[in-house]
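for the recovery benchmark. tokens below, seq after
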């Protein structure tokens, strides 16, 4: 019974798989009979993939977009803008990639201001394409839109704006206003002149920023400007010098007034007796020193003694305190000197002998009280 069931199962399996065996057998026989053509076709397809890979698969860089041109269909695709990343297109189509990031360009040019001053300026500006209207830009302008549209519009607008201002305004007072106006008007000019036929206003490119980097005047103008600036600084320095001189004069005037006021106050309290007292006090303080001294007397009757430190004076003795009458100890000193107590006096005229000593001075000498006077009339008491 089991064997009959197995035979029936095999028969059913053979019947069911017969079509597949016939199909795969036919395919296998076909591959065997056509192995060379199949191998050639495989090699051709692989070679085509390798060769046409760059025409089929496009890698759009970051920040870029692309337009597609279809030669066997409707030409430039106005609806298709390939985004960044991998994109697969038909091998016969042409893909043009545009950089959609912000570009910065610089241009150096000569401008003429309203007062006929010719200068060289360097202007930098930024521009960027509009991704949405990129097919229109590619169709009506092309990839070289910078040299066709942007550069002529920027340079022409810069010359026109600078021509409406004087040099002092254009390069100093209204410089920021001029750069802003260049950016606005240039963007408006491009918007108006770059619109496709049949369309009112379509923005394809935008000018976003304009900056004046440098400016150069003719050499003689630059020399004149530098000279003017130097003279202006010199003139300004004189203003400060005059202010300083006035302040110094006021200071001296105030100082002189203070000195005069001080002298007026002091003169009211000064007298001859007070000055003599101050002189005697100063002499006594000098005489208290232990150093050897030379005592000098004034030639007038009211002359005060003055003590000098002179260790090298010949015959100088040890100092003693002078008396109130003008006499002072001392041995044979210079003119006007006095002899010490108990010693001979041989000084020149005007000398005085101290108390207890013989007076031997010439006329004009004065001997103190209690000592013999050896001089002629005019001596001291």
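predicted aa per position
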């Amino acid at each position: 019974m089991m064997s009959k069931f197995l035979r029936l199962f095999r028969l059913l399996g053979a019947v069911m798989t017969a079509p597949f065996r016939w199909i795969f057998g036919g395919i296998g026989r076909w591959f065997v009979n056509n192995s060379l053509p199949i191998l050639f076709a495989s090699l051709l397809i692989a070679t085509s993939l390798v060769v046409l890979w760059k025409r089929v698969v496009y890698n759009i860089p970051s920040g870029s977009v692309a337009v597609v041109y279809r030669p066997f269909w409707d030409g430039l695709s106005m609806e298709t803008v390939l985004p960044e990343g991998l994109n697969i297109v038909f091998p016969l189509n042409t893909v043009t990639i545009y950089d959609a990031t912000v570009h910065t360009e610089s241009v150096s040019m000569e401008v003429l201001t309203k007062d006929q001053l010719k200068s060289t300026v360097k202007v930098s500006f930024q521009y960027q394409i509009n991704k949405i209207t990129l097919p229109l830009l590619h169709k009506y302008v092309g990839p070289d839109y910078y040299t066709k549209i942007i550069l002529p519009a920027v340079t022409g607008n810069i010359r026109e704006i600078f021509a409406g201002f004087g040099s002092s305004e254009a390069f100093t007072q209204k410089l920021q206003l001029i750069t802003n106006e260049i950016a606005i008007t240039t963007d408006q000019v491009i918007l108006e002149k770059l619109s496709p036929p049949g369309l009112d206003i379509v923005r394809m490119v935008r000018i976003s920023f304009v900056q004046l980097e440098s400016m150069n005047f003719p050499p003689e103008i630059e020399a004149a400007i530098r000279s003017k600036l130097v003279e202006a600084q010199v003139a300004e320095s004189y203003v400060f010098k005059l202010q300083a001189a006035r302040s110094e004069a006021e200071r001296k005037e105030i100082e002189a007034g203070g000195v005069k006021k001080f002298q007026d106050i002091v003169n009211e309290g000064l007298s001859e007796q007070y000055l003599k007292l101050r002189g005697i006090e100063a002499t006594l303080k000098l005489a208290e020193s232990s150093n050897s001294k030379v005592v000098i007397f004034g030639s007038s009757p009211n002359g005060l003694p003055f003590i000098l430190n002179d260790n090298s004076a010949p015959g100088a003795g040890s100092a003693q305190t002078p008396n109130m009458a003008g006499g002072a100890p001392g041995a044979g000193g210079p003119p006007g000197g006095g002899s010490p107590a108990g010693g001979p006096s041989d000084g020149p005229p005007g000398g005085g002998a101290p108390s207890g000593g013989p007076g031997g001075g010439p006329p004009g000498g004065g001997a103190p009280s209690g000592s013999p006077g050896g001089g002629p009339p005019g001596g001291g008491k």
